[in-house]
Amino acid sequence: MSLSTSLWLFLAVQALGLAVWLTISVVNNCHGFGGSAGAVGATMSMAPLKQPPAIHTPLLSRAIGSQTLHRTALLVVLALQILAAAACWTGCWQLLVVGDLGASRLWLNLGLSAFTAFLLAMHLGGLWFGYWIRQEGLQLTHIALLVWAVAAFFLFNTAWT
């Protein structure tokens, strides 16, 4: 196997992995919309802070209990996930079928931008609603996914040969 083939293979695996991961996220949020909206709602209503032992903080004034707003927030995330998945699949097509790394980068960058946008929406929204206090695992997941998005951006946009 040549160096250029091995590099192409690694990029292809990464692009496909990202596209599949984003697709599974879309399917999960569509299939379990009520549960996902409930999870978003728990963060937005700051429910974890109200569980025993309750944490009394001035941040609780930010709580939003509207299920309509919880569902709307999830719909925004879902729209960005759909855009990210579609763009990544187009980038995969350009890379794997057309063989045009330049064109694939444009689509993969769009996908990564939408990926980053919905991750930042969740991360910054969580920060606003104090999720670091009782939802540390969720915050760490968002941070890890942001690191993945940034690493993928550099992977896809570095001239390797």
TrEMBL record:
Transmembrane stretches, start-end: 6-27, 72-96, 108-133, 140-160
Keyword set, alphabetical order: Membrane, Transmembrane, Transmembrane helix
InterPro entries named in the record: DUF2165_transmembrane
Entries under Pfam families matching the protein: DUF2165
Domain of life: Bacteria
Protein name: Small integral membrane protein
Source species of the chain: Variovorax ginsengisoli
